[in-house]
TrEMBL record:
PANTHER family documented for this protein: FLAVIN REDUCTASE, FMN REDUCTASE (NADH) RUTF
The protein's name in its UniProt record: Flavin reductase (DIM6/NTAB) family NADH-FMN oxidoreductase RutF
Database matches in InterPro entries: Flavin_Rdtase-like_dom (IPR002563), NADH-dep_flavin_reductase (IPR050268), Split_barrel_FMN-bd (IPR012349)
Keyword Oxidoreductase appears in the UniProt entry: yes
């Protein structure tokens, strides 16, 4: 039996995900990447994971980063977040890019992390972060579903 990678990708697309912007600092300064491969791992200790693609030019910087922040993107912040798809240094107004990891205080939720582990995950690396601080506010998350962006519409 031949495995159909296109069908696999299409089937995975049936699982809606949130959209995150992960930030770190490398030798050149603040850096960001958009990721939808984010999940909780453990409450005690507080661990989360995300998975950058090995083919990404930003992969090595994120895997090596001792600290990073994962920002859960609000539905209203789609354009600002997606600017990082093309340019990992597209920090606009609202971002704080001082000496530490770049953060956006107004994001829907933020998980500040210290790198806990990195594992081979095929064409991705599974990066596990120990959560050192969290921030959250009310609002609707940006959702990615079958190649489209939107927001959750609850049933009446």
């Amino acid at each position: 039996m031949t495995f159909d990678a296109g069908a696999f990708r299409d089937a995975l697309g049936r699982f809606p995900t949130g959209v995150t912007v992960v930030t770190c600092r490398d030798a050149e300064g603040p850096l960001a990447i958009v990721a939808n491969s984010f999940a909780s791992v453990s409450l005690d200790p507080p661990l989360v994971l995300w998975s950058p693609a090995k083919a990404s030019r930003r992969h090595d910087a994120f895997v090596a980063a001792p600290r990073f922040s994962i920002h859960v993107i609000a539905a209203d912040d789609k354009d600002e977040a997606l600017a990082f798809v093309r340019d990992g240094r597209a920090f606009g107004p609202g971002w704080e890019t001082g000496e530490d990891v770049p953060v956006h205080p107004g994001t829907l939720a933020r998980f500040d992390c210290a790198r806990h582990a990195a594992h081979d995950g095929g064409d991705h690396t599974i990066v596990v972060g120990l959560v050192t601080d969290i921030h959250a506010r009310d609002g609707d998350a940006l959702i990615f579903d079958r190649g489209r962006y939107g927001r959750f519409a609850p049933e009446p």
